[in-house]
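User: Teach me something about this protein's shape.
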Amino acid sequence: MTKSILTRRRLLQATLTAGAAHAWRTPFGTPARATAAGQAAAPFRVAVIGHTGRGNYGHQLDTLWGQLPPELATVVAVADAHADGLSAATGRLGLPADAGFQDYRAMLAEVRPDVVSIAPRHIDQHHAMAIAAAEAGAAGIYMEKPFCRDLVEADAIVEACRASNTKLALAHRNRYHPVLPVVARLIEEGAIGRLLELRGRGKEDHRGGGLDLWVLGSHVFDLALGFAGQPLACSAHIQQDGRPATAADVFEGDEGVGPLVGDQIHARFEMEAGVPLFFDSIKEAAPRGAPFGLQLVGTGGIIDLRVDLEPLVHLMEGNPFVPAPELRRWVPVTSAGVDQPEPVADIRHQIGGHGAAVRDLFAAIREDRAPLCGAIEGRTVVAMTMAVFESHRHGGARVALPQPSGPNPLAGWQQARSVALATVGRAVPGEPRSQDGRGGWG
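Assistant: First, the predicted structure itself:
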């Protein structure tokens, strides 16, 4: 690699990091909604969509609105296809019975809310719910992560929101943490030397592998985008029971994610900043309840982000590849700086309780701008997930990003296997061959 290329990459890395203070804007202290004349207006009218037994209400995407100042937002209706779940939800939200609907489309048509909270964890419902909310004229959508099942759905949601000027924000809560601009500044100032790579891991519990990639990897990818820019390519390897995963291992995943495979994921992304992002997940590799997150590894130290914990960030100084005689200490980093107490008294509510995220959504509606973590970022994360599957099914080949619209690659892999199985003696794409040279899928 020539010196000029290295110089350009370092300049791009510095530029991305320097711009991260804007990328990590934090909506703390967002004022009440205002009219054009600057006078306080009515609060945003919020309608909640849940589905008891099929993703429920996610990470409190129903009750979070009641924790906000009443001049910001008020819940006016809730929809839940499960009758008992609907009754419980109206009670929990302090709504009269006639503010509850079993059909969310009927609720959207009758109530015409300003903001729709799409709460279910099961993402097979997100596409239809988001399209319906946008077509009903909602100014904003707050949606549980992950975004949706594939790029066909992602592109449809993006287009529907563009057509109606609906601002969609995803519940990647840590993206709004006020410590992230501090981290960006530390990298820019050389606190960890030259940034070499980003390394993320999921929770690596019973979901380790494919489902961990979907559910927790979405948080990791979202954070990585702010530090390393857009993904340019991916190469990945997926294992099942200690061997390369094949089309025969594909199954219907939990939480509505669609086709899924693997109990081990090992992926490498080429990123815009010129540093690689690695994501790994191995089933049952981590202790029960272990946190997950992202590490930024440099020549002079490591910055560690543990998702949903407080403090979110720790710093360890020193070259991580050189043994040191002295004990190295992990030092907490807060929005006030390194080894300083956190000045935001209600930081757990603002981040874990979605307060900062929905304030940014409200500001995006008022200012007619994209939310900090919106539909475009959601599509990028889905594309990264799809690229992992696409690379593995082609033997770990490099898959360029961004990807064009299309279904989950695992669905096509399954279909190709079915066709091959119907042809006697034909090898199945991506599966190992038996000793006699015929397809080994029996």
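Now, about its shape. The domain at 31-170 is CATH 3.40.50.720 (Rossmann fold). DSSP finds 13 helices and 19 strands in the chain. If you'd like, I can walk through any region in more detail.
User: That's plenty for now, thanks!
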